[in-house]
Every structure is written in structure tokens, then in C-alpha cells.
Amino acid sequence: MSSNGRPTAGDSLRVALLSPCFWPEVRRGAERVVRDLADGLIATGHRPRLITSHPGRPSRTVENGLPITRHWRPPGARLDRRRYEAYLTHAPFSYLSLRLGNDDIAQAVHSPDAVAAARWTRRTGKPSVFSYMGIPDHRGLMMRRQRLGLTLRAIDGCSAVTALSDGVAREFERWLGVEARVIYPGVDLGRFHTGWELAESPTIFSAAAIEEPAKRIPLLVDAFRLLRRRTPSLRLVLSRPLDPGLAERFERENPDVELADMGRQGEGLPRAYGEAWAVALPSLGEAFGLVLVEALASGTPVVASNVGGMAEIVDSDAIGRVFDGHEPEALARALEEALELAEDPGTLAACRSRADDFSIGRSVERHLELYRELLGRPAATVARPDATSAGLTS
User: Fold this and answer.
1) How do residues 300-352 score in pLDDT, each as one tens digit?
2) What are the distances in angstroms from CA 118 to CA 224, 284, 328?
């Protein structure tokens, strides 16, 4: 500890991670990023904790070495119906947890939590990080009421802003005039590994949520059906949603598509990736595309939309294909070429090599570099952009 009370580079850091929700309530990419970062920090001798919320009673647990505080999240259905930013009601409790703690640094992955972290920075002088999980373009910032304002307040008050990819960083500069630090998410290369036996029949797998329109699952189904005309044994396997009613409706409307249970914390994902011949993510608006790296770590070629962070991952025809547009024919061509890659003996090694670039270890080290930088100087803030000049006022 330095003379001014700040931890030095060799100290074990106390890191408060803030996420509006967590496992088992949800299982999206942001929650996986938080868990993997926490695991990496624990493995390197640091002391993270997670401040989150859920609809139930407040609780404190330790899950696989990570202390987790789950605050009660007051009902927000009325706000949601009026298209306000999601997960607004728990933020005062998150701020209170920060004030009562003894953390060295706070890192939030959602704008209301980042506003709480920014307020904590103003009160304590300790640094905070706003890790933006989406794409801050016009569509993304104006999709929900108050999202722009909350984002600007978080940027104004937090000590640093991070982006999941170079593409996201460019959108920060374009729309908000903010320089964001790029830190790629990390993937557990021990959990997602090679050595699986391919499915007997050619199989396309997608872990994307079927209920999310931006994931474009109907487009994937249409492309699959085009390919199946030539290859009747072709299979499309999707992750079964937690909502049984939704799963039943989907199976009734799409009897030629299989739904597989991935478990409440994605326990089935490694096998699904490893047995697939190709993994597809036809989404729009992906800031990174974590599932693509997980598939590559399993030695499986991937197909993705040629937008956002996904195009940065699929940087070679040796590991997969990207496609443009909204037509199933373009996606079908990309899928067909990726399925052919699965039969190339060199594909597995090429996929795994690319995944190595996105290990948890690399991501944790980039985060620690940022933490040490912020802790080595008085808490600085990012200059707030002007929404009107950026053309983002509604």
C-alpha cells in the first residue's frame, strides 16, 4: 500500500463488479464475461466481489470462490412496458453496497450500475470503470428511454470506459466523441477445448437466444432449409430457451429444428460446440460475439454476420466465414463452406490457435493494466460529450 492509501502494483486488489442480473436468472454473454473476469482475478490472487440483483429476497453467497450480493430488484414491468432502460430499480441498492464496502476499484457492465459507480467515485475518490457491453451507435443508444442520458452520466463520472472490440471503440468516437479502451472478453480455454467427436451427421449449432430478434434465428432456419434440400441429413441444433412455453411453440412451428438443453449455466455448451460441424451467429448488433470464440476454442469453424466485433474474430477463411446482408442464400453459402472446413484436417488447429488470442489470462492482464493505471493517479474522468452536437437527441 502506498503512502496515499492506494494499493501498489503488487497488492491484491479488491474489485467490485456490478451487473444488474446474474446466473441462474439469466445466461447471456455479459454475465459470462463477468464470471470469467472474476475467476481470472481470483486465480491471480485478487479479491473480486459481485454486486447484482434478482426478484427474490436479498442474499449473500460465495459461489466458486466469488462473494455475491444479490439485492432485491423491485418490479419494473411498468417501466419496461414504457420502454425505459432495463434494470433501473435496483441501482440504489448497488450504490449502497459500494458505499458500505472497502473496494479499491469498481467496474460496472450496465449504465444504471455505472451511474452508481460514478457516484461512488465522486464520493470516495476511488476509480471506476464503465465496461460497455453493447454498441453505442444511434440505434443502440436510442432504443430505450433514458439510455442515452444514463450512458452520458456514466461516461462523465467513471474514470475509464472500455469497449469489447475495435468496432465498438470506433462507434464511441463517432457518436459520443469518447476514446474507449478496447479490452476483448476472455474465454476459458480449459472449459472449451478440442477432443470432441464430431456428430455423425453434418450439424450446425447456434447458442444464440431464439427469443431475441437481433440474433436472427429465423434467417438461420431459412438458410438451413435451403441447404437441407441438397443434404437431407443436415441438422440444425439450437439452445433450448428456459421458458418451456416458448420452447414448445418453437418446436411446434419448426419440427425440423432440434432444441438442446444447455443447462442453467451453460453446462452443455462445450459438448455442443465440439460435436458441431459449424457454429453460426447471424446476429446484428453484436459488440463482440463470445460464442464464436468458444466454438473456435472447441476446434469448430464458425459463421457470423460481417458486422461489429464478429468480423474481428473471424479474421481468416481457415476458421470460418462471414456473410453480408439479410438473405438466407448468403448465409447458406457461408454455412456450406464452413461445413466443408470441418472435414479439413487443419481446421481444428487453426480454430484453436485463433481462440488462444482471446484467453481469460490475456483479458485479465489487460484489465489489471487498466486498474493499475487508474490507481496510480487521482481518479480521472472521461470528458462528457454533448448529445446535441453528436446528433443523438430524440
Assistant:
1) 999 999 987 899 999 999 999 999 999 999 999 999 999 999 999 999 999 99
2) 46, 30, 44
Domains of the chain: 14-186+361-375 (3.40.50.2000), 203-356 (3.40.50.2000)
CA distance 109 to 86: 13
**CA-to-CA distance for 132 and 130, rounded, in angstroms?**
6
Host H or E run for residue 109 = none
pLDDT tens profile 10-21:
589 999 999 999
Q: Is residue 202 classed as helix, strand or coil in its secondary structure?
A: coil
Low-confidence ranges of the chain (pLDDT < 50): 1, 3-4, 9, 379-380, 383, 388-389, 394
- Residues 6+ away with beta carbon under 8 Å from 133: 29, 30, 33, 109, 110, 164, 287
Strand boundaries in 213-289, DSSP class E: 235-239, 258-260, 278-281
What's the whole-model pTM score? 0.85
Q: Mapping DSSP to helix (H, G, I), strand (E, B) and coil, where does residue 98 land?
A: helix
Burial zone of 344 (CB within 10 Å; 0-12 exposed, 13-18 middle, 19+ buried): exposed
